[in-house]
Model the fold of this input.
Amino acid sequence: MRYEILGPLRVTDGTKSMSISAHKVEIVLSVLLIRADQVVSPEQLMAEIWGEDLPRRATAGLHVYISQLRKFLKTLGAVGNPVETRAPGYVLRKGDDEIDAHVFLQLVDRGRAFLREERHDEAACHFEQALALWRGPTLGYGEKGPAVGGPIIDGFSTWLTETRLESQEMLAECRLRLGRHREAVGMLYALTAENPMREVFHRQLMLALYRSERQADALKVYQTVRRTLKDELGLEPGRPLQDLQRAILAGDKCLMTPPLALSGR
Done:
């Protein structure tokens, strides 16, 4: 069985894929998956479901949701009972089942290792595989929307989202190192639009455009991010962006050398 949380939560078993329609049951499964093979207390689960506004029969309600979750997993053909009652709470036994977020993190770790060894082609391949697992925001909730759970869900979602952004940054750098700057342009335009305050994406885009013989477009990117930072935060771009702008204006031929993709890190 495979649990998928890199997008709307769903569980697949062979060719069968199912989602949970009951929101509170979905929250329970989300928390147990995030803490797979670890005991989660009833108090933690209730905080994720109701926050500080607990109903009078919260404990009884939680028992109902656990029961419904067990029935849902049994319908999918779960072997035994993945959700066990274990003092002082509940645990989801992962066993031989797969969680897509775990696969994502393993691929990212391998990509980082290859990047440290300057094996950029292999690193890029692992980052591409990792990012291809995503179907949308973690658990289907907007990355910039309001909190949808307690500290467990929200903290995990924030961490995974940041790791995804880091993976996108490292993939772009691998492509620049490999001389695949034209291929990186479209990806980086999308990333700068989605993350207008993340200066590293603007720097990478400027470099990719410059290497693609688009000096004017590279300088326009600088003006755009400079205006955004001044309007939103009253700040000037950081030193790496300023240095890159000056180098582009000077027509610095050293910028065409792929290893400079990592400058400013």
